[in-house]
Amino acid sequence: MSILNYNGGCVVAMKGKNCVAIACDLRFGVQSQTITTDFERVFELGPQLYIGLPGLATDTQTVYQRLQFRIKMYEMREGRRMKPQTLMAMAQNLLYERRFGPYFVEPVIAGLHPSTKEPYICALDLIGCPCEPADFVVSGTCSESLYGMCETTWREDMEPEDLFECISQSLVNAFDRDALSGWGAVVHIIEHDKVTTRYLKCRQD
Amino acid sequence: MATERYSFSLTTFSPSGKLVQIEYALAAVAAGAPAVGIKAKDGVVLATEKKHKSILVEEHSIIKVEMITDHIGMVYSGMGPDYRLLVRQARKVAQQYFRTYLETIPTTQLVQRLAAIMQEYTQSGGVRPFGVSLLICGWDTDRPYLFQCDPSGAYFPWKATAMGKNFINGKTFLEKRYNEDLELDDAVHTAILTLKESFEGQMSSDNIEIGICNAKGFRRLTPAEVQDYLANIA
Which of B159, B149, B126 is nearest to B39 (CA)? Predict the structure, then answer.
C-alpha cells in the first residue's frame, strides 16, 4: 500500500468564467478504518487563494503550516498580496527542498490574481513538478475516477452556479467509487468579490 | 567570515554613540569618483565619472555602471574592489529570488537584501564595513525606482542625488534643476551637467559612463550615444 493512500482523500479544482472552484472530501482514516468525517484538506491562504493538500494527513498539516509561514513573511516583506503563480513557485520550492525524503502530499492550487482577477489553477506532484492546464486539476486516492468525471462534465466558461454543479457532481460520483475517500464534501466557489463555501450531503460510507 | 583570531566585531561604538568605522567608510565614499542618479517620469539615469590616473589605462575594459538583472542597474562611489563583491552578491540574490518565486526581483526587495548584507559587515567578527555607497536604479510595476545604499546598511529612496567628491555641490545643483516632469532624455542631460560641475578637464565619452533604466529594461549607453548627449551640451 502506497504511503499516499494511507489516510485517503481527494481534491479537485476547476476553472470557470472569471471564477475558480476547489473541492475536497472530508474523510480522515487509517487505511480501512474511518476515524473522522470532518477533516478538511482545502485551506485558505489569501482572500482569493486556496490550496488543497491531499495525501498523508500529517504532511497535509505540516505543508499547510510551512506554506502559511512563508506566505505571511512574503506579504510582510514585500508589502503586497501573493499571486497564485508565485504560490505555485513557492510550493514547488518547498517540495523540492525535500527531494530525497519528500512530503507525501500532491497539492492543488486555485485562485484569482489579486489585481487582474484572472482565474488560475495548478497541481503539483509530491516533489514539486507543476501542471498548469486550462480546465481542471485533480489529486488524491480517486484521481483516475476524478479525471474521468471531470473530462466528461467540464465545459469552458461556466458561470459560478454551473461550475458548482459540475465540480460537485464530478467529486461526489468519483469518490463514491473509492473506499478511501468520501464521507462528505466541501466546495469553495471563488469569485472576484466573494467566496461561497457549501457542504455537500452525500452517501456516508 | 571570522578567523579564529577575530571573533569580535571591529566596528564598535564610540562614547558619543557613533560607529566611527562607518564614519570613516563614508569618508572613503566622499573621496571617491562622483556618481549621479536622477529619476524621470519614464525612467532612471545613472552617471559616473571614470577618470584614470594615467593615459595608458585601457578605459573601456573597466565598467562601473553594472547590470544586476534585466531591469535593475547599479553604480557606486568609493572603493572599486568592494563594489565588485557587492555586484556579485546582488546578482546572486536576484537569481536566487527568481529560483524561489519564478518572478523577477522587485527593486525594493533587492535593495533591502543588499542593505542587509552591508549591515552584516558592520556587526560581524573580523570584517570591516564596505567602502562604497551604491546607487541602484530599477523599473518594475510600471514605475521607476532610485535607491542609495550606504556602508552602514541604511538605504534611501531618491528622486535625484549625487555621491562622491563634491556631492554637496552636486545635490544643491540637482535641487535647483530637478522637477517631477523630467523625461528620460532631459534627465540624462541634467545628470551630465551635474557631473560637469565637479569635472576637471574635458568631458568625453571615454571618461564618463551612463546607464539608463526604463520600461524596456536597463542598459548602458554606448560611447556613441554618450557623445551625442555631450554634443548637445557643448
Answer: B159
Put simply, the answer to whether B100 touches A93 (Cβ < 8 Å) is yes
Predicted complex ipTM: 0.86
Pairing type for strands A49-52 and A33-36 reads unpaired
Measure CA B203 to chain center: 20
Answer yes or no: are the C-beta atoms of B22 and B191 closer than 8 Å.
no
Cα dihedral B15, B16, B19, B25, rounded to 10, equals: -120
Q: CB pairs below 8 Å between A and B: how many?
A: 22
Q: What is the pTM of this model?
A: 0.90
Radius of gyration of the CA atoms of chain B, in A: 18
The angle that helices A143-153 and A160-175 make with each other, rounded to 10 degrees, is 140
- Residues A52-63, mean pLDDT to the nearest whole number: 97
Asked whether the predicted pLDDT for residue B4 surpasses 80, the reply is no
Report the C-alpha gap between A70 and A16 in whole angstroms: 28
Q: Tell me the Cα Rg of chain A.
A: 16
Window B:108-167, CB contacts with A under 8 Å: 108-109, 112
Q: What are phi and psi of A31, to 5 degrees?
A: 55, -115
DSSP of B197-233: HT--S---TTTEEEEEEETTEEEEPPHHHHHHHHHHH
Q: What is the pLDDT of residues B29-48, one digit of tens each?
A: 999 999 999 999 999 999 99
CB contact under 8 A, B109 and A78: yes
**Run of H or E residues at A112:** strand A108-112
**One-letter amino acid identity for A201?**
K
Do residues B111 and B60 touch, judged by C-beta distance below 8 A? Answer: no
